[in-house]
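#onboarding

Welcome to the new folks! Below is a worked example of what a typical request in this channel looks like: someone posts a single protein sequence, and someone else replies with the predicted structure as tokens. Don't worry about understanding the tokens yet, we'll cover that in week two.

Example request:
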Amino acid sequence: MKAVLLAGGRGTRLAPYTNVLPKPLMPIGDMPILEILLRQLKVYGVTDVVIAVGYLASLIQTYVGDGSRFGLNVTYSMETSPLGTAGPLKLVKDLDETFLIMNGDLLTSLNMGDLIAFHRQHKAAATISTIVRHTQITLGVIGTDDDFNVNSYTEKPSYDFRVSMGISVLEPEVLQYIPDGKPFDVPDLIKALIADQKPVKAFPFENGYWLDIGRPEDYQKAMDEIDLIKQQILPNASSDNQA
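Example response:
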């Protein structure tokens, strides 16, 4: 199993920290986010990882090297201009079998073996890992008709949404939908697949930990919680977990 790990973004929301470090090298506890992800991939049976790099790429390459100290074969794909979250896939060689793609700035206890098994069971072209997030509106929401007659008034409603976790499983056939050398994001790819009536599935992650470390408050939350959730995030390797 091969995984593509997206680590080329500038991480502007985490500035000024990311002025000197790429976001995937931001430390969480005693190791960078990127190392946590690499160790997870090893646990779940991934053998080859391609890290898509751009911003401060040399720091990532120096830290990770060839991946041997993590028990992985790590190579790099360099983007010379921003290509979004799906665009870098066109630069990766030999994506000729089912592969994982994931953001390089998240923490999760997702069992990637379960995700891959779900994808294969449903014979999907793409499977997106998803989690339900609760959103609270702090104001009164007014409903009106076309003539602005008020027909509803809901005080501080809350809504549940199924959101992407930033980890997907893809088949090689999806690469043909990605343009060469142009910015293209995973949502663009999924929309193109749906428009062409290709099977796209959502894997439901119901019970576990997930955090997108994109904002300073999220990074601080990860720092505060890492000692409590580290065993969930980095379980001991076992044959039951292998993809």
